[in-house]
Every structure is written in structure tokens, then in C-alpha cells.
Fold this sequence. Notes:
- This protein has a domain at 5-141 and 173-199 and 261-275: NAD(P)-binding Rossmann-like Domain (Rossmann fold, 3-Layer(aba) Sandwich), CATH 3.40.50.720.
- Helices cover 46% and strands 16% of the residues.
- It has helices at 13-24, 39-42, 58-65, 82-96, 115-130, 150-156, 174-186, 205-216, 227-236, 241-257, 264-270, 277-288; strands at residues 5-7, 29-33, 47-52, 70-73, 100-104, 134-139, 158-161, 168-169, 194-197, 203-204, 221-224.
- Helix 3 packs across helix 4 and helix 9 runs antiparallel to helix 10.
- The longest helix is centred in the last third of the chain and has 17 residues, at 241-257.
- The termini are far apart.
- The relative contact order is 0.13.
Amino acid sequence: MGYTVLVSGANGKSGRAVMAALKARGAPVRAFIRDAAQGPALGAFGASDIAVGDMLKPETIKAAVSGCDAVVHIGPPMHADEKLIAGHFVQAALGADVKRFVYYSVMHPLRREVPHHARKLDTEEMVIESGVPYTIVQPIRYMQHLEPIWKNVTDQGVHAMPFNTRVKFSVADLVDLAEATAKVATEDGHLFATYELAGPEPLSQDDMAAIISQVIGRTVTARQIPLDEMAAKAKAAGATDLRIETMRKMNAHYDHSGFLGNPNVLRWVLGREPTRFKAYVERLQALKR
Length: 289
């Protein structure tokens, strides 16, 4: 069947993007999902095989990894059991003698003030010391955070996020991050490396609003959402108290520190220039028409 890659968290935004990138490289993909009903839709994103299991049940993970050559592990967002879950996939990978284990972490996991960053730092240490043939990718904040608010941005002319409008972020296109992840999962030469994957330009909310204004042809302004307002909306949407508290701490950290990185590694892995924010917004506008 060729070089088969298991992708965990396959039905999430990141998982779907990584599967599509693997498909573009001709790699057969086995999608690890919790609900079998999600399976049929994933073929369009590159899944050629489906494994149904539970990340907290090692026996289901062992069965899913069997016969795979590589694993790309994308854990549930902001999950309290990040290290435990990743450990189940690492042990299954060791048992199946996989050639590559790619851990999808986060850039700057050493920022322990942000709980899910701290959990990923502990998980990275576990992966490195496990003996599995690993590569760690550390993606920064996605440009795609614009998509859930696109209608409000275009209809109301307001780009709103829960941190101040001046602090800067080296946002990256998820399509680029997924392509980089697929490359390290399928190419030689990336074992035992940790790659910081940052976008090509430091941008504040004000900067992003100005670029969006230029693309859509109407004025967009930036607004800081108070954390209490953010928490109330998250609770109404069904977020757990733990997730809401993690989001509070993350956005409070962003408010004073931003999230900056250097694009050289992403550029090198891709072998091309990473996507700039204006190009991403133009692509998004074309899709939404």
C-alpha cells in the first residue's frame, strides 16, 4: 500500500489540513477518529483508511498504528491529558516499529504561563526521551483564526480578538504548516529535529485590519474583546471551564507578550516563501464569494 501515515486528531482543522498535504504528496493516510460517523467526509481531505478509537484507550491506538510507517500525532486542543495521550501514541509507535513519529506541538512551549504550552513542553520531553524516531514541529498561531469571524469582519467592519490591538504575531498559514508537517513525515533527513514554524511577518490586529481593509475595499478597525466577554461567549458555545481558563491565560499572555517567531525554518522546510497575510486574505475572500 505504500508509505502509510496515521494522523490522529484527523477530523480537526489541523488534522484535515495535514491529511490534505499528505495526499498531495501521494502518501496513503489512515485517519484516527473517535466517531465512525466522521469517516465518510474525511476521504475528501485525503483519508484512504479510517481507524476508530479513543485517545485515552491505548488498545485502540495500538490497533490503529499497526501497519503504519509513520505517525503524525495532533492532540486534542488544550487537553489536560496532553502528555498521557501522546504517550499512548508513542508506545504504540514503538511497538509497531514505525519509521517516524511527528509530534504536532506549539511554538514556544517554554512559555509556562500558558497552560497548554507548558503541557506540550512536558510532552516534548517525553517524546524525546522515549526512544521513538521523532520529529517535533512547533506551529505558531494560525492565520485561519480569521475564518470564524470573517462574516463579522466583512459585515460590521470590526476585527475583534481578546488581546490588545498593537501586540504583534508572526501568524502562519495552516496550509503552509500542514505542508511542512507532511514533508517531515515523508522525507528523509528530519529525524531528531525540532522545528519552529513561524509566519513571514510580524503583524498586530491593527496591521491585520489595515490589510483586510485593502483587500475587501472597506474600512476595518481592530477591537480588543474583554476577557470576561470572551469567556461568556465560550461558555455559551459549550466550552469546558478548563478550556475557558486556559483561553483566559493564553490571551492574557498574548496581551503583554504577543507571539513572534522567525520564518527561516518554515521557509527552509517548504523550499519556498511562506504565505503572507495579504495573500491569505485574498484567498479567503475568493472562497467566501
